[in-house]
C-alpha cells in the first residue's frame, strides 16, 4: 500500500486533482466537461512528442530537435499536397520526413559518439533551416504558412471520436501504444537496460545502437504526428509550429519521472505531467492571469517539483539508514 | 597531419574560419576589409559574453541553458531603471546584480539541492523569462538614453566600449584559468569524486560557476540594450543554444574538464562570421539556420570520426609495442 501511495505517478495525479480543484474554485467554468475536453486541443501536441521523448531519455539520450521536426514534417506535407499528391501520399511524406529525421539524429550520434544534446542541437537548427528554405520553394517565404489543404484533412483537426476531440484521441491512442511498448515488451526492457548501463548492455550482446535508433525514430514520427495534427487544426503548415513544444515537452518528460541520466522514467508519468502542465496554463488563463505569468509559473513548477523529488530521494536514502542503526 | 587536426581543435577551426572568410572574400569583393573584422566582432559580442558565461559551467560538467532569459531579465532591469531616471553606473550595477542573483538561483538549485543542471536551468529559463515579462507588463522598453547607446557605438579604432570590455573579460578568464584556483574548475569537471577527495570545495566551485554565468549574461544584456537601443520581449531567446553550439564547435567538451578560452573565442567568431558572410553574399537570412546547422553537424561528424580513428590508432600502437606494464587509466565516468 505504501509503495502504491508513494509512487511518483500517484503524487502527480494528486497534484493534477488539486490543480483542477483550485482552478475550479477560482473559475467554475473551468471544470465544465466541454472546456476540459476541448481545452486539451491546445496542448496535446506537447504530450505527443513528450511520450516518445521519455523513451529517448530513458535510453540515456536526449532529443531537442523534435521542436523543428514538427515544423519540417508539416512543411513537407504541405509541399507534397501543394504539388497535387493524394492525401495519403502527402501524409506518408510527412511521416517519412519525421522518421528520416530520427534516423539522421541516431546515425550521427552513433557515428560521432558525441553527447546527444550536442548533435540534436545541431539538427534543431538544420531542420528548422531546412523547413524555412523548403517553404520558400512553394513561394511561402519566411514564416508564412502553406495552406490549401483538402477539407477531408482540415476536418480531422476538429473531428470527434466517441465524443472525444480528435487530437486528444490521437494522443491517448499513441501513448497507450507506447505505454505497452515500454512497460510490457522486450523492447521496453531493453530501452531501460540500455539507459541503466550502456556498456553492460553492449557486453551482454544487446542491440544498443538499434534500440537507441528506434527511440529517436519514434520521436521523429511523433513530431510528424504532432505537426500534421497542428496543420489540420490551424488549417496551414508553418515552420514554427513546434517551437513552443520544446521546453514544455522536456518539462513533461522530466516532471513525469524520467531521469535525465537515463534508465528511469514512465510513460504514464509523462502523460499525467502533460495534463498537469497543460491545465496549469489553461487554468491560469481562465483565472485571468496574463500568459507571461503563467509561463513563469510553469517554469517554477518544474524547478520546485524536481527539487522536491530530489529532496524526497535524499530523505528516503537517509531514513532507512537511521532505522537500521536503531534496530 | 591527421594527428594535428584531431588534437588541436582550435587551430583547425581557425584554419577553417580563415578559409571560409577567404572564400567569401573571393566571391564578394570588399568583404576582406578591417571594417568587416570590427563588424564581426561587434555582431558577436552578445553571443561571446553568453558563451564566456556558460564556459566555466560546462567545464564543471554542468550546463546552463537559462542564459537567454537572464539576458532578457537584466536588459529589462537596465531599461526600466534607466527610464526611471536612475544614473547609469547605478543602473548597470543593478543590472549586474540581477544577473548575479539569477545565476545564484541556478547555483543553489544545482549545487545545494542537487537538481540535474539541465532540468534546473530549463526551469529557470521559463521562470526568468516570466519574471521579465511581469516586470515589463509584456511591453517593449523603448527610448533608452543616448548615453547607453554610446556604449555600443564604435569609437576607438572600430571598437565599442562594450567591445573593449568583452576583450578584457576574455583576457581575465584566460588568466584565471591559468591560475591555481582556475585549474580547480577543470578538476571538478574532469573528475568530481577525485576533486572532492583532494579537498576542493566542489559545491562552492559549481555554485560560483553558475553565478559567473549569470553575471556574464547580465553583461550581455547591457551590450544587447546598448547595441539595439530597445528591449523587445523576446530579447535573447535561443541565444543559449547558439552559445552552447559555438562552445562545442570550439572544442569544449560537454563532459567537463576540457576546453580553452581560445576555443570559445574562435567558436563564437566562426558562427558570427558565417552569419556576416551570408549577408555579404546576399543570401537571404532564412538560409542562416540551415547553413549554421549543417556546418555544426559536419564539423562534429568529422571531428568525432577523426577522434575515434585516432584513439583506435593509439590503441593499436600500444598493443603493437606489447606495452602491458602500463595499463591506460580509465576515466571514471560514473563517479560524478
UniProtKB/TrEMBL annotation, chain A:
**Which spans are transmembrane here?**
12-31, 43-62, 82-104, 116-138, 158-182, 213-235, 241-260, 267-284, 296-319
Q: Where in the cell is it found?
A: Cell membrane
Q: Which GO terms describe its molecular function?
A: transmembrane transporter activity
Keyword line? Cell inner membrane, Cell membrane, Membrane, Transmembrane, Transmembrane helix, Transport
The protein's topology relative to the membrane is: Multi-pass membrane protein
Q: PANTHER family annotated for this entry?
A: ABC TRANSPORTER PERMEASE PROTEIN YPHD-RELATED-RELATED, AUTOINDUCER 2 IMPORT SYSTEM PERMEASE PROTEIN LSRD
What's this protein's function? Part of the ABC transporter complex LsrABCD involved in autoinducer 2 (AI-2) import. Probably responsible for the translocation of the substrate across the membrane.
Tell me the subunit arrangement.
The complex is composed of two ATP-binding proteins (LsrA), two transmembrane proteins (LsrC and LsrD) and a solute-binding protein (LsrB).
- What protein name is recorded for this chain? Autoinducer 2 import system permease protein LsrD
From TrEMBL, chain B:
MF terms per GO, please?
A: transmembrane transporter activity
> How does it sit in the bilayer?
Multi-pass membrane protein
The organism that produces this protein has a lineage beginning with: Bacteria, Pseudomonadati, Pseudomonadota, Alphaproteobacteria, Rhodobacterales
InterPro entries per the record?
Answer: ABC_transp_permease
Q: What is this protein called?
A: Autoinducer 2 import system permease protein LsrC
In terms of Pfam families, this protein maps to: BPD_transp_2
One GO CC annotation: plasma membrane
Keyword annotations for this protein, in alphabetical order, are: Cell inner membrane, Cell membrane, Membrane, Transmembrane, Transmembrane helix, Transport
Role noted for this protein: Part of the ABC transporter complex LsrABCD involved in autoinducer 2 (AI-2) import. Probably responsible for the translocation of the substrate across the membrane.
Organism from which the protein derives = Celeribacter halophilus
User: Record's CDD domains?
Assistant: TM_PBP1_transp_AraH_like
| Membrane spanning residue stretches | 37-59, 71-96, 108-135, 156-177, 207-231, 243-270
State how it assembles: The complex is composed of two ATP-binding proteins (LsrA), two transmembrane proteins (LsrC and LsrD) and a solute-binding protein (LsrB).
**Does this UniProt record's set of keywords contain Endoplasmic reticulum?**
no
- Protein localization: Cell membrane
Chief place where the protein resides: membrane
